[in-house]
Amino acid sequence: MTRKLLTGIAATAVIAVVAAWAAAPIFAGQALIRAAKAGDADKLEQLVDFPALRTSMKDELGRELARRIRNDPRVADSGLGGLGYVLAPMVLSGAVDTLVTPEVIAQMVTTAEAPDPTDDETRESEPNAADRRDDKDIHQSWGYRDLNRFAVTLTDRDQPDQHLALIMERRGLFSWKLAAIDLQAE
Question: Positions of the region Disordered (predicted)?
Answer without folding.
Answer: 110-137
